[in-house]
Design brief:
The complex is a heterodimer of chains A (about 350) and B (about 160). Chain A is about 0% helix and about 50% strand. With about 350 residues, chain A is mainly beta. Chain A has one domain: Methylamine Dehydrogenase, Chain H (7 Propeller). A four-stranded antiparallel beta sheet of chain A has the order 1-28-27-26, with no helix packed on it. By secondary structure, chain B is an alpha+beta fold. Helices cover about 30% and strands about 10% of the residues of chain B. The longest helix of chain B is centred in the middle third of the chain and has 15 residues. Classes of the chains: A mainly beta (about 350), B alpha+beta (about 160).
Chain lengths: ~350, ~160
């Protein structure tokens, strides 16, 4: 059984490179894309024609590149992070998308924004080397509850764990991936682990962190052209045992020729990567008999997926559709479907 | 704030005579000529140094050999030599080279810029900044920086 990634549609409209795509976790077929053209576009799939069109353009609020966008778990809110230093929260997409909150704490470009699993917390990070955590109150009031300093360089991405309020951040600073956790009731977050080159970590900037559905595995990608898989015994942590460290499981190298800008782990276990070599690649657990060394293998390589760098890849949240969205320097977003060829 | 130039007395090399392109064997007007080392060098040789009224070629910051190109794979690497080991203009120079090439080469090209190994005190840090696409993009949204770069890229009235 041979698999292929088939291009379903190319979404055009942005007038500069597209940095990030995000599927709405609650509304099927809805995705957001954000760009150096300072706007965010919301795309929806028509129930009749099954094709996507641009339903809204969020503009006028960010004055510089919008680097990252993330939907709240309810799908009702969209957070956007910009080089202008602001993080905005938007709602009411059906009628007239409204920016309901502007979070301003970073001293320079904001690189990433992430919601925790319950939607009660928002994390942001930026070139000022800090990570901020915000509490979302009713009436969309947002309060900054923590500013985490620990990285020595530009923080590229923040990502909450899928089931626990563990925050992960990765950086320009040669490798460091930090794990932040608030163990007590006082709300103090501490850095409980740092994964650096000496822990089998990356040897250059780490761009993205993504978790598998169970939350016991994480995949990271880097400027060093490798993808790394990490694991932990999350059940022990979930049962209240205290922090259980993550360890390196596997490094995938040699298949990407340029910096890997994005990885995403699908609900059904397929890892997608997008890179500066214009390819999208898919990896899976190789089901090897070895219990000691978990191994992953390349499932498929899509050459020239875009005409230039791919900045972001994200699987649609449902398991059935097998749709993947990608965003590129070529100013387009593409929708792909993973199909089995007879 | 340091007053005066970083490098008060740069070495200015004698101007190399420009080679005329000889008629190539390719007479088919529809086949694009492969992009070669000289073509890329031609794009960057006249970039002005940020501090002096001289070009990068005059100061031997770039030479023809500092350009490595693989047109089949749409790849170019430029290795430049700052005039001084502690030159704080190194990132500006690197940025100017990158911007000029981004504006001059087809979109398919992958561009790497680096300082000549051993030529700069903070070589790794400079190289990292110059090749981080996100950092470069953010820098090019800074109007002061863009103005400086555009000044360096302006053709001189010769």
């Amino acid at each position: 059984m041979k698999l292929d990634l088939v291009e379903v549609q190319k979404l055009e409209g942005h007038s500069a490179r597209v940095w990030n795509v995000a599927w709405n976790p609650a509304a099927a077929g809805v995705l957001a894309s954000c760009s150096a053209d300072k706007t965010v576009r919301i795309w929806e799939q028509s129930s009749l024609s099954r094709s996507w069109s641009c339903k809204a353009v969020l503009e006028g609020t960010h004055t510089r590149t919008v680097k990252s966008c993330a939907w709240s778990p309810s799908g009702k809110l969209l957070a956007t992070a910009s080089f202008d230093g602001k993080t905005c929260v938007w709602e009411n997409f059906a009628t007239d998308s409204e920016c309901v909150s502007v979070l301003q704490v970073h001293e320079s470009e904001v690189k990433s924004v992430s919601w925790n699993a319950s939607g009660s917390l928002l994390a942001t990070c930026g070139r000022d080397k800090s990570v901020s955590i915000w509490e979302i109150q009713p009436e969309d009031e947002c309060y900054c509850v923590a500013m985490l300093l620990g990285h020595s360089e530009d923080v590229k991405m923040v990502q909450w764990h899928p089931t626990m309020d563990l925050l992960f951040s990765c950086s320009y600073d040669n490798t460091i991936i930090k794990v932040w956790w608030c163990e007590d009731e006082y709300g103090d977050y501490d850095c409980v682990q740092t994964l650096s080159e000496s822990n089998n970590g990356h040897s250059s900037t780490v761009w993205v962190i993504s978790f598998n559905a169970a939350g016991d595995r994480m995949v990271t990608c880097s400027d060093d052209r490798t993808v790394k898989i990490w694991g932990t015994d999350i059940k022990r942590m979930q049962s209240g045992e205290g922090y259980v460290p993550w360890t390196h499981l596997c490094t995938l190298s040699g298949s990407h020729d340029r910096a890997i800008y994005s990885v995403h782990w699908s609900r059904d276990g397929i890892i997608a990567s997008g890179a500066g070599d214009d390819t999208i690649q898919l990896f899976v657990d190789s089901d090897s008999d070895s219990v000691v060394e978990p191994a992953y293998k390349l499932l498929l390589k899509k050459e020239k997926a875009h005409t230039t760098d791919i900045n972001s890849v994200q699987w649609a949240p449902d398991k059935e559709s097998r749709l993947l969205a990608s965003a590129s320097d070529d100013q387009t977003v593409k929708i792909w479907k993973l199909v089995s060829e007879p | 704030m340091v007053s005066g130039l970083i490098n008060e007395n740069p070495i200015i090399y004698p101007k190399k005579e420009r080679r005329l392109r000889t008629d190539s064997s390719n007479t088919d007007e529809f086949t694009p000529e492969p992009i070669d080392q000289l073509e890329i060098f031609d794009h960057i040789r006249d970039i002005k140094d940020p501090e002096h009224p001289n070009t990068l070629e005059d100061l031997r910051v770039v030479t023809e050999d500092s350009v490595e190109v693989d047109d089949d794979n749409s790849y170019v690497r430029v290795t430049f030599t700052p005039t001084m080991e502690h030159c704080s203009m190194a990132t500006i120079i690197g940025l100017c080279v990158r911007v000029k090439l981004l504006r001059s080469l087809p979109a398919r090209y992958k561009i790497d810029i680096r300082v000549a190994p051993g030529s700069h005190a903070t070589e790794d840090a400079v190289n990292k900044q110059l090749n981080d696409k996100e950092r470069v993009a953010a820098a090019l949204e800074n109007p002061n920086l863009v103005e400086m770069v555009d000044e360096c890229l302006l053709p001189s009235a010769e």
